[in-house]
Amino acid sequence: MIMPIGLSIATDPVHVDEVEFFVDLTYTRDGQLVHEQAVNEQILRLIDQAECFVVIDMFLLGDEYDRRLQFPPLSDRFVETLVSKKKSCPDVDLVLITDEVNTHYGSSTSPHLERLQNVGVEVVLTDLRSLPDSNLFYSPLWRLFGRLFGWQVGPGSGCAGRGWLPSPFSPQGPKMTLVSYLRLLNFKANHRKVVVSEKSLLVTSANIHDASAYHSNIAFLVHGALVSEAVAAEQAVAQLSGHELPSWPRHRLAPSVSSGNIRVRLLTEGKIKKHLLQGLALCGLDDSVTMAMFYLSDQELVMALQDAATRGARIRLILDPNKDAFGRTKKGIPNRPMARQLLGRSKGDLAVRWYKTSGEQFHTKLTMISYSDRALIIGGSANLTRRNIADFNLEACLEIDALHDAPVVKEVEAYLERIWSNRDAEYTTAYETYPGNSFVQYLWYRFQEWNGLGTF
After folding, report:
1. Residue 417: CB partners within 8 Å, gap ≥ 6?
2. Which of 35, 101, 315, 418 keeps 20 to 30 A from 370, CA to CA?
3. Residue 362 carries which DSSP code?
4. 287: domain CATH number?
5. Residue 66 domain boundaries
6. pLDDT at residue 175, rounded to an integer
7. What is the reported pTM?
């Protein structure tokens, strides 16, 4: 199977004067936990300022979590902002595209989604059945027996309210049906995190999800550029589910800026990997690569990093230690065995630091490649795993190509240097804190990465 038409794209580059960079960070300063949060406010501001339409493609939206924990009500604020916008500006088209995880794969209804639908927001649950299968062992059996037993139904056609199995997401979550569990095990997702209006495009790594509120994330915002391209990319997702986005007149869309020294383009799905590999292939002596990443396991990228280090590039990886997941403890897969693999085989200047999480996740997905004459930045929703960047899941990133004196380049450099060097607070810790020495863990990570049985 291949990706349907309109997916896995790299748009033509567009020149702009400015790209805005926003950060969510959780860290420790003087023994106190600090939360810097800017991304969600930008999403709400973009909605408030829209005059024609807003299309939001968001993987997670909801407030399901273990109630023994406490989080800010991100999802309620988001929903109330959309409801208020629709009531005050009924002619503004509001579209929310999201993943079926928010309905427990058909086992429940989402109060947030229902509230939006009730006021006229168009809600699209992404139908992922036409996407290629990443779970090589399981999905062929699902396709065979699911068809025989009539289980291969689209989103919204499950058995809401009939679940009897415990939720895998939280102890108090809605019960799930067996069929919903079987659908979940395909591990398919619309993992994009995009907000586009007639004026602006925001691409982020952050979900609008209460239990994710304290995760560290990033976002990029561009005005004018790439609006029509982003709408086309979201139209392709809507069409998977039999929906058509409204046809907005081109004169209502902000024109793409043709001047400016910063080149930007939208990358989705497998084109994210293609452009990362191309960027790494150009790295040599005196160039540098800094990655801030939640998951890194794609073997072509791992090899490309090793090769770049061998050619003389300086490689720095800031990784989540993969120990926390919404109140549960994880065992470090894939990042810890991957880091061990990378450092063990490296013949160059390659270093790893772990982000010091305190129950939350370092959920950032950001790569910066610094050449002698310019910088290449790629950031957005995509973890660097086979499932996320090899044309299986739906993903979206922004690519930025600019000179070193561009403000966005300086801001990203300062952010990465800040957390790498622990400037003004405790952000990261040495590789030796989570060394990943288990050979069994290494074999399990490689097996899961190869066959798609893992959740990363």
Report:
1. 423
2. 35
3. B
4. 3.30.870.10
5. 20-252
6. 86
7. 0.95
